[in-house]
Amino acid sequence: MTILLYHPMCPHSRFIRLALSEYGIEADLVEEKVQERRPDFLALNPAGATPVLLDEPDIVVSGAGPAAEYLHEVYAASGSVRLMPDNPVERAEVRRLMDWFNTKFFAEVSTWLVHEKITRRFLGPHEGGGGPDMDAVRAARANIRSHLNYIGWLAAKRNWLAGDEMSYADLAAAAHLSCADYLGDVPWAENENAKNWYVRVKSRPSFRGLLGDRVLGMNPAPVYADLDF
Amino acid sequence: MTILLYHPMCPHSRFIRLALSEYGIEADLVEEKVQERRPDFLALNPAGATPVLLDEPDIVVSGAGPAAEYLHEVYAASGSVRLMPDNPVERAEVRRLMDWFNTKFFAEVSTWLVHEKITRRFLGPHEGGGGPDMDAVRAARANIRSHLNYIGWLAAKRNWLAGDEMSYADLAAAAHLSCADYLGDVPWAENENAKNWYVRVKSRPSFRGLLGDRVLGMNPAPVYADLDF
Fold this sequence. Notes:
Two copies of one chain form a homodimer.
Chain A: E1 2-6, H1 11-23, E2 27-31, H2 39-44, E3 52-55, E4 59-62, H3 64-75, H4 88-117, H5 134-157, H6 168-182, H7 192-202, H8 208-211
Parallel strand pairs in A: 1-2
Antiparallel strand pairs in A: 1-3, 3-4
Helix pairs in contact in A: 1-3, 1-6, 4-5, 4-6, 5-7
């Protein structure tokens, strides 16, 4: 039994959900409300963040990067899907872009949008809850433009973001963009190449689970689940 | 020829310098002033950050995590030093702790100390230069305590931070701590286990280069290069 402790609007969890689905690994998704800081959860991952992958026997893998590498090392050898290239230099490029989205895009865009627009709705007034700080939202909306242009630039010169084959780089990028897209904060009209690349990722069967996610009391933007937006 | 574009006070660069030295790889260290945003440097790494590893022929590996994985994949197979375990579950633990220090410790501690106390000395008044914002420094000094306790807790139950053998987890942790230590901001007296673990890493020949680093016009704290502090 494989279990993923996740949150529907955590982009790092979404990345690992996509990877699990691409590899065809059946996993139980168990929602973790990280803000509650459950002692049992902190014992699994002292960083207190999703995703955490539980695999048999008694294996705990915390964090998006480590979970992606673990899934590749343990499951890809036995399957036909490969989300990491075999060549160390090509792997370095996939890892650079995984880090770009999981760290840089997260710090500049997705953490602000998700925290301000979603997390704060579920926090009490003494925990930082309340309406979104629109200065933070505006900063994230400004930052996302350069990321979208970078994706468009990569997509114009390569078949997929890191090279000839679809890889973790595409899944990480799409996972983070999908959270911003739920909130209606991706200016798709500004970069046709980025949009066309996203349509290709979003159309994959692995994406269906993400497109069905809903946040309590907050519907997704109209384009969110539309494959022809 | 292997070249590392680095900055003396960049903890991510220090991590890769330690790795190169542990593997016995001769590399030319070339200082990069990232705040100048040289076009040639941005062409190598659009993220605009150190470290960037240049290897023959025409190989560019950007970022601490990708560089560490690349060095392991390309050089460890032919040598006796292994900074990543062979078992995927043990590797996941090394990667979790690498990320802990390269992302979490950096965001909560080292980026603030280095930016406020060092980087801002070399920026003009319109670039955010000036004296340190002591609120940011105090926040970093408060945050470092929980990290030091976590290191002490790990060091008490394991031989090295991630398990029986020294690994990238130890080098990443020591690299980030060494920057805070240069600035005199590690409260060593608070955790004997953490201090004893750091003495072991700091005493390794790979650490000598770091202990010789100096920032223009700013001497290190007295304990910095002292192996018996």
